[in-house]
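Write out this protein's structure.
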Amino acid sequence: MSDPMNPERPAPRDPALRPETRPEDEPPRRGAGASMVLWILLLLAIIATAWYFLGRDDAEEMPEPTPIGETTPEPSESPVSAAPAPRETMPERATPPAVTRDARPLTRTPPEYPAAALRSGIEGTVLVLVEVGADGVPTDVSIARRSSSRDLDRAALQAVRGWTFQPAMRDGEAVASSVQVPVDFRVDNQ
């Protein structure tokens, strides 16, 4: 830093303000940071070793020691302490295997072929997703995969709404489920 009054002359250095306060004949210390790193690494190695040995689960289960002076009680000869005679057990009834199956159509009313699609010769298959109640009646009907014609899709939905289904069975009980049914429209079938 220079003297503000005289820009050519440098300011005198105060030895108390000098950043280096060690004597000139002492060599600079090196490796102080390296020794700190070595101490940290040593500490980490000790912690990891302790964690490894304390966390091992290879200690064999030792049997419970028998205290000195205790003996195993001897069986009594009295009729009261005898084990009761085994009862005759009823043979277990064979349970029928639990029935598990998906819902399937019982009555399939054929869909009406839309007149415009029939005149145009449009054919296709509509995949209908049906939510079937436990009573076998469709509760919701939607299209899982469309055909090439909106008219065929509508006719398929209308037809499937009137179908009845055999409900799905889980563990022998009728349950609500969903099933996909294909509805085909072919000109040669009309």
